[in-house]
Design brief:
The chain is an all-alpha fold. The chain is 68% helix and 0% strand. It contains 9 helices and no strands. It has helices spanning 2-8, 20-43, 66-70, 75-92, 96-105, 109-117, 122-147, 151-165, 176-201.
Length: 205
């Protein structure tokens, strides 16, 4: 029946229905818009801190060293450290906008094809591959400046160095700033992936 036909037809055109030229320019626009939106969300106050998907927790290694810095008696300092870590990530996030935009501009036709025919996070994987090293360099000094003011961060850095030597702490977590930078970037790519999934569900929109 007519009703059945209407119900069965898709409500929007799929990626397969878009021509190559349209796809490449449309994809670049969508990725620029999506990555800009992700940066804007994370760079606002509470962008990390109030979002359970990307909120940065205390380093797991903190529990392994010095009995978690006697965490039970240091709840106030621990809370202060968590807030400062997330504020540091929020302060660093805007640095990503230009590098992400540049990565889209440099994208080859082959990159675009791979992204269009790739999995749900093919574009996010492209961003991670092309921007992670540079973003790490940009984020680190901003994060360090924000966390240096917190006493517990300095204690962690002193103990984490010993923890690495003893094999209790991964090299990645050897300092608060390296840990926060890594987690901040994970959160950034997670939010870009959410934007990408939305685009894939409605490419024409």
């Amino acid at each position: 029946s007519f009703v059945m036909t209407v119900a069965a037809s898709p409500t929007h055109a799929g990626i397969a229905d878009i021509t190559n030229a349209d796809a490449a320019s449309g994809l670049k626009q969508a990725l620029t818009d999506g990555s800009t939106a992700a940066v804007k969300l994370l760079g606002a106050e509470n962008g990390y801190f109030a979002n359970p998907k990307v909120k940065i927790p205390l380093p797991p290694s903190l529990q392994k060293i010095e009995s978690g810095l006697r965490m039970m008696g240091m709840k106030k300092q621990a809370d202060e450290l968590v807030l400062s870590m997330n504020r540091a990530a929020e302060a660093a996030a805007p640095e990503a906008k230009q590098l992400l935009t540049d990565a889209v501009k440099k994208m080859s036709v082959q990159d675009a094809k791979t992204i269009l025919t790739g999995g749900d996070t093919a574009a996010t994987d492209y961003f991670r591959r092309t921007t992670q090293a540079q973003l790490t360099q940009r984020f680190l000094p901003i994060v360090k400046k924000a966390t240096d003011r917190v006493g517990l961060a300095q204690q962690y850095n002193n103990l984490a160095g010993q923890g690495v030597a003893l094999g209790l702490v991964k090299q990645d977590d050897a300092s608060i700033e390296t840990y926060v930078t890594r987690k901040a970037l994970d959160g950034l790519y997670l939010m870009i992936a959410e934007q990408e999934k939305a685009f894939r569900q409605n490419p024409v929109g």
